[in-house]
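S.,

Sequence below, as promised.
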Amino acid sequence: MVGEVPLILYKGEDDPKKCTARKLRRFGLAIFISRIPASSIVLYPDSAMRLSPEDSSFQHLVAIDVSWENIESYHFPLKSARSLPYMLAANPVNYGKPYKLSTVEALAASYYIMGRKDVALSLLGKFTWGIQFINLNENPLNDYSKARNSSEIKEIEKLYV
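The prediction came back faster than expected:
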């Protein structure tokens, strides 16, 4: 089962004052890493595979914290790379924009989808706008968490896009 403390491959490309990954680390809710360990699910927006509840069998959840402006320059051809389905951002920088989630939103969505709503709420609880992410995406998150695999997630996603 995926551990409760997510791992973050941190590149330091965003404004440190707005960086959700740094805040999670400061509160002991995330660990920064320099390489991705085996048995990890890696959140990567260009992956054809969607994260689903079946991915909870991996040991680690890894987020890649880079600027959206530079995401194209990173390639992670890992068979364990997963993208997230359609959701709206609640963070102040990208509020209401689909797929433009902050690191904490991506991690919280992942935990929620994999059946760990408690961990998702704990991560989001450190941000004044955090619960708004759940409020904006409650229906899709609940539906995604009932899917069995990536294919079912993609079918459910069509209802929201």
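The radius of gyration is 14 Å.

Coffee later?
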